[in-house]
UniProtKB/TrEMBL annotation:
One of its GO terms (molecular function) is transcription cis-regulatory region binding. Gene3D superfamilies: Helix-loop-helix DNA-binding domain. Residues 122-131 have a biased composition (Basic residues). Its main location: nucleus. Residues 1-44, 122-141 are annotated as: Disordered. It is found in: Nucleus. This is BHLH domain-containing protein.
Length: 205
């Protein structure tokens, strides 16, 4: 009965506590980041779905693949043609993003790190590989399902291993939209090449 007469006293004390204020601040900041991320996601989806962006990417990809072929014809060393094509397609895709996203900057930086790693590998031939950290793997397996899936998503999206959840979702949305555009552009190029192949065989003497 007494509690019903004074219902707001304890709630007022809790609301005025520093911990409750910090919680409300974190909630408001997360809501703000989520709203901003949704706006950015809509813009990125529209950008990657335009025909102009797809055509620009396809033309740049063809130019890059021609340079790769020219380098191989000139005696340049290419370990794997499929891997070289995939890396070239990813670099052109990251360049199309113009460095506006974390994943695109990470893909472009990977090329520099890969070249440095080759030089180190040549010096350290015969060095033993370090053992995997099984303790870290066991720790990851004990994480809740949502956190475990977010960590997996962070590993799949380049450069997003240590970002906040709203930023991770924002980057993943943009990355997926860019990959979808990449698939469409490659399918269009494959159709053009398939249509041009019979003509080239017929014109041969």
């Amino acid at each position: 009965m007494v509690d019903s007469l004074f219902p707001s006293t304890e709630a007022t004390v809790d609301d005025a506590s520093p911990e409750s204020r910090r919680k409300r601040r974190r909630i408001s900041e997360t809501a703000k980041e989520t709203a901003e991320s949704s706006e950015i996601n809509q813009e990125s989806l529209k950008r990657w779905r335009t025909n102009r962006v797809q055509q620009i990417y396809a033309s740049k990809l063809v130019e890059a693949l021609r340079r790769v072929r020219q380098r191989s014809n000139d005696g340049g060393k290419i370990t794997s043609a499929a891997r070289e094509i995939r890396d070239t397609a990813d670099r052109v895709l990251a360049a199309s993003a113009r460095g506006t996203t974390r994943w695109s900057r990470a893909v472009l930086a990977t090329r520099v790190r890969a070249s440095l790693k080759k030089h180190k590998k040549a010096k350290l031939t015969g060095a033993r590989k370090p053992r995997k950290d099984t303790a870290a793997e066991r720790k990851r397996s004990k994480l809740p399902a949502v956190e475990r899936k977010l960590k997996i998503l962070g590993r799949l999206v380049p450069g997003c291993r240590k970002v906040t959840v709203p930023n991770l979702l924002d980057e993943a949305t943009d990355y997926i939209a860019a990959l979808e555009m990449q698939v469409r552009a490659m399918e269009s190029l494959a159709e053009l090449l398939a249509a041009a192949a019979p003509r080239s065989t017929l014109t041969r003497p």
